[in-house]
Amino acid sequence: MGGRVVGDILERMSSDVVIVGAGIVGAACARALAMAGLRVTVLERGAAASGTSARGEGNLLVSDKAPGPELRLAQFAASLWPVVADELADELGTSFPAIEYERKGGLVVATTDAGAAPLLAFAASQRAAGVDARALDVDETRALEPQLNPAITAAVHYPDDAQVQPVIATEALLASARLRGAEVRVGVTVTGALRDASGRITGVRTTAGDVAAGSVLVAAGPWSGEVARAFGADLPMRPRRGVVLVTTRMPHAIFHKVYDGDYFAATQSSDAALQTSSVVESTPSGTVLIGSSREQVGFDERLRVAVLRELAAKALRLFPFLAAASIMRSYGGFRPYMPDHLPVIGADPRVPGLWHASGHEGAGIGLSLATAAMLAAGFTGGAVPTDAAPFRLDRPTLQRHLAEAAP
Ligand SMILES: Cc1cc2nc3c(=O)[nH]c(=O)nc-3n(C[C@H](O)[C@H](O)[C@H](O)COP(=O)(O)OP(=O)(O)OC[C@H]3O[C@@H](n4cnc5c(N)ncnc54)[C@H](O)[C@@H]3O)c2cc1C
């Protein structure tokens, strides 16, 4: 009798899935898995969206992705965002702040003669992959962005690029997951795995006690490497530092996400040294975000003047009027970087019961919903919405890095 009662309590306490991390990826997965009927517990050591998801911009981009698996995931994500934005508004009501989804479009420009041909060729390759990428002349470009420096050598307009407020989006996805029975516990650090006699993971050890679960999903952003290691699995995750400048509020004078063509090269580079490219956009509140840098400096949080200076100088090349703007603050975060530039989404073939949703680098806000849909299909055996193979942990491009990550 006593055993039966204890068993019932454990049964009620256990989840089908424990998600480690309440950033936007964990939040999106919590909602998708709860919608699929699974009992979900999210464990977060800080507050919700206290990691990288609060430290970047909220761009949902197809424009910066070359034809291939990441672009396909981004195109799928772009189809999900307007639907989910409406669903969240309906579910959460007007007392919950809007996630500020806006399909504002992106404008990519070249500022040198040498940069023009590669930008136009890149756009042509994307068009062949189904991206709406429209080459514009200077007058057409200035009609979209009157304050843009006219000394540009090429421009491409991407109407499908969009934007959200990532912290509100994370909170909204978690709130929606809660409405479907998910439990979200903050201030709880996951420290290791519970296992059965066969080695299968049966839950997690935490600073607040053990939590039983059928499976564990690691969605710990740039910290996923150390979390996975606590579960006996290596993951070649590295933090890739990025910094953003924020101006004081001003009348809206920038209407798209505008960036220079160098940005794509920076996202795809594996160089650890500092790289900056100009990415400028306004927010609904009237601030202007000026990004962004990329460098591998571990988890070093210091703001360096040299980085800020370079970001500001490059932004002025695009928008000279920003010379009169005041910078209100600057912040930075750590992109979760996988050495082959693709996230890991799916089951870990090495450790039964362990799953991953990590490594989205500079695209985790945008790709979160698509990642969650893929995982939900993986958990339930449903139809996978886009080819899952390029995101598997055992893909060929990751094997060398996995071997290097092993202690
Ligand atoms: C400057 C900059 C600009 C960016 N701009 C964009 C952009 O415009 N568009 C875009 O799509 N992406 C952008 N990104 C990238 C994006 O922010 C990330 O890809 C995304 O936030 C990753 O989300 P996540 O949920 O995987 O990780 P996180 O948001 O970092 O969440 C992981 C969570 O796990 C928690 N955690 C870690 N360890 C444990 C543990 N042991 N126990 C419990 N909890 C734990 C952490 O506290 C954290 O809250 C940008 C990033 C930076 C730095």
Folded structure, characterized:
The chain is α/β, with parallel strands linked by helices and 407 residues long. It has two domains: 195 residues, FAD/NAD(P)-binding domain, CATH 3.50.50; 153 residues, D-Amino Acid Oxidase, Chain A, domain 2 (2-Layer Sandwich), CATH 3.30.9. 34% of the residues lie in helices and 25% in strands. It is built from eleven helices and 18 strands. Strands 1, 2, 8, 9, 10, 11, 17 and 18 form an eight-stranded mixed sheet that branches. It has an eight-stranded mixed sheet with strand order 5-6-4-13-14-15-12-16. Helix 2 runs parallel beside helix 6, helix 2 runs parallel beside helix 10 and helix 3 crosses helix 10. The longest helix has 24 residues. The radius of gyration is 22 Å and the shape is globular. It starts with a helix and ends with a helix. The N terminus is likely disordered. The site of flavin-adenine dinucleotide (FAD) has 43 residues, from helix 2, strand 2, strand 12, strand 15 and strand 16.
Radius of gyration: 22 Å
Low-confidence runs of at least 5 consecutive residues: 1-12
- Name the hetero compounds present: flavin-adenine dinucleotide
Order of helices and strands: HEHEEHEHEHEEHEEEEHEEHEEHEEEHH
CATH fold group of the largest domain: FAD/NAD(P)-binding domain
Give the CATH architecture of the largest domain.
3-Layer(bba) Sandwich
Mean pLDDT: 93
Write down the overall geometry.
Answer: globular
> Residue share in helices?
25-40%
DSSP, total strands: 18
In the CATH scheme, the class of the largest domain would be Alpha Beta
Number of domains: 2
Q: Whole-Å distance between the termini?
A: 47 Å
Which structural class should the secondary elements be placed in? Answer: alpha/beta
Count the helices. How many?
A: 11
> What is the name of the CATH superfamily of the largest domain?
FAD/NAD(P)-binding domain
Largest sheet: 8 strands, mixed
